[in-house]
Amino acid sequence: MNAHATGTFDITSWNELATDEKEGATFGRNHITKAFHGDLVGTSTTEILTVITPDGPAAYVGVEHVAGTLHGRKGTFALQHSAASHNGEQWMKWQIVPTSGTGELTGLTGQGTIRVEDGHHYVLDYTLPDA
């Protein structure tokens, strides 16, 4: 089954775990929790590594564990994040970690994007074996 999921999420907590000031950049490690709404309903925990330059946010990478219901199917899965911004342009991408799906989401694969505009919006294009 190929599907397309959309919705929003709220960041429910953001904890800075460590920072390291270097010449020209600040590196950080953060723990984030989220609540998802829309085609995906659930919660997640995320660990991200960031780099911030004097000109603003520059990039982050991370991994996220999601627990919830995706189009009526319940389970968990992991996401790999990559993101950057430059000259006012920003991109944030997700990749579902293969073999990470559990429960009714076993076999889940796919990728998506995040857009920050009047809140956090997600798109997730995925494939899931037929039930």
Summarize the structure.
With 131 residues, this protein is an all-beta fold. The chain contains no helices and eight strands.
Polypeptide structure, described:
With 131 residues, the protein is mainly beta. Helices cover 0% and strands 78% of the residues. The protein has no helices and 8 strands. The chain has an 8-stranded antiparallel barrel. Strand 7 (109-116) and strand 8 form a beta hairpin. The model has no long low-confidence stretch (mean pLDDT 94).
- The CATH superfamily bears the name SO1590-like
Report the oligomer. single chain
CATH class: Mainly Beta
How many E strands? 8
Question: How many domains make up the 3D coordinates?
Answer: 1
What is the helix tally?
Answer: 0
> Given the C-alpha coordinates, what overall shape results?
elongated
Q: Describe the biggest sheet?
A: 8 strands, antiparallel, barrel
- Global mean pLDDT: 94
The SSE string, one letter per element, is EEEEEEEE
Contiguous uncertain segments of 5+ residues: none
Which second-level CATH architecture applies? Answer: Beta Barrel
Structural class: mainly beta
CATH topology: AOC barrel-like
Q: β content, as a range?
A: over 45%
Strands of the biggest beta sheet: in what spatial order? 1-2-3-4-5-6-7-8
